[in-house]
Each structure stands twice: as structure tokens, then as C-alpha cells.
Amino acid sequence: MKLTLYPLSDLAPPIRPAEARRQWMDDTPESFAYRCLPLAVANQHGWEVFAPVGLTARWNGENRVEDVEVELDDPMYMNKPGAPVSNFGSGILTFEMGFLMRTPPGWNIWVTGPVNQPKDGICGLAGVIETDWSPYSFTMNWRFTRPGEVRFEPGEAIAHLFPVRRDLFERITPEIKDFHSDPKTVQQMEIWRQSRSDFAGRLKTGDPAAIEEKWQKGYYRGLMPDGSKGPADHKTKLRVRPFEAAKDKPKKRRR
């Protein structure tokens, strides 16, 4: 599957594989937040667009376009890829992506704020674009949550994107079933509950083995509660490729 990016200027597009680390996760005691594998994998799930220049944005609480003020550390970046503007009013800050994307037929691009990266005073808004046909570039919009000032540092992620099938939800049939209709899963769940209760109790009483283990790693290791192996394609890390210049195949000469 090809995911193609078309820069709309001579500048290199400010996009990279999504970074795994988060400062707030680093700052948790012993960086325990990374023990949550679903959280850590979500961080890496796609690509990030980043701010090529530092900036400060302010909102006075009113609804006019001019009520959002943007100050770039380097004014030369105004109207360049990744630079912000005030287009819509109502406390919305807009980042111009500076590129167009093309996906295979039937695939969209989901664009949202940086994943698992809360930012005080402003919130990234999500959008879904039909990039298999659209000839239009798109923007990343943030909305102030209160009047005030926010700061984006150079290299800070301003958007997170990844492809999704357009017919995804048409393909899914949601249903509710009695849990006990799946005896194997019930059995594994009971083993896990017993194990979790036992581990928590041993931690509480200061059991040295539990203290050394720190946390149960069954899901992280891709193991079933009874110790058997889970699926072979279990992931603890994603390897998202960077965007690189396409290598066009040479055209065959006609004889």
C-alpha cells in the first residue's frame, strides 16, 4: 500500500514517524506510564506533523478572526508549511499543513491532535479527509479552551495522522453476546482475575518477588493468562517508515 505526500512548496514537509516518548510519561515515577502498552503503541500509530518554528498564540475570548493573535519566533516562516494562522475566529488556531496526501481507493486520512499529549489551554480537533480523490490540501485546527496564551516549541507535534478505510464501519456488525457463551475466554479471564488479585495482595504485603517484578506483564509480552503464547503478530513497538523521495522507474524506450 502506498501513501503519497505531495509538498506544495520547495521546503521539506515537516512530517515524521510518530514519536514513542512523551515528556509527561517520562516524568511518571520510574516512567511507569510506558508499562501501559496500548498507550505506548498509540503514541507511535502513524505520522506527526511538527512545528518548524516556535510560536506563541493568544486568544482574547471573542469570536472575530482577529481575536486570535499569532506571534512566530521567526516571522520569515509566516505562510510556510506548518505555520499557524487565524482563519475562522471563535478561538480557533489553524496550522497549514503545506502538502496534499494521496491514499489508495477507499482509504481516508484521520487527522487529529498529538496522541496522548494534552496541552493546557488548547485542544486539537480531529478531521477525516477522503484523500483518495481530493485535490485539496487540508489544515490542522486547534481550539482554545479558555482565553489566554499558549506556546508551541520548534519541533513540537501539531498534528497526528494515519490512514483508515472509508468503509470500515459498513464492514463491522456490532453485537452483544453472553460472556459465558465463550467458555475459553471465560476461563482465561478467571485465571487473570485470580492472578491479578494474588499479585496485588503480594505487593501489599511486601513480597520480594512481586516487588522485583513491579507489574504483571502478560499482555505486554503477548501471553495468555495461563502462560500460553498469544498471536504471533503481537506488537510492543511499531516501525513506521519516514516519507522519502519516490524512486521512479525509468521508462522503457520504444523500439
Low-confidence stretches: none
Radius of gyration: 23 Å
Beta-strand percent range: 25-35%
Strand order of the largest sheet: 2-3-14-9-11
Mean pLDDT across every amino acid position: 92
Distance between the termini: 33 Å
The dominant shape is globular
The count of helical stretches stands at 6
Range of helix content: 10-25%
Q: What is CATH's topology name of the largest domain?
A: Deoxyuridine 5'-Triphosphate Nucleotidohydrolase, Chain A
Instruction: Give a count of the beta strands, DSSP E runs of length 2 or more.
Output: 14
Top-tier CATH class of the largest domain: Mainly Beta
Derived from helix and strand composition plus strand pairing, the structural class reads alpha+beta
Description:
By secondary structure, the protein is of the alpha+beta class. The chain has two domains: 4-171, Distorted Sandwich (Deoxyuridine 5'-Triphosphate Nucleotidohydrolase, Chain A), CATH 2.70.40.10; 179-221, no CATH class. Helices cover 18% and strands 25% of the residues. The protein contains six helices and 14 strands. The strands form four sheets. It has a five-stranded antiparallel beta sheet, with no helix packed on it. It starts with a strand and ends in a 34-residue tail after the last helix.
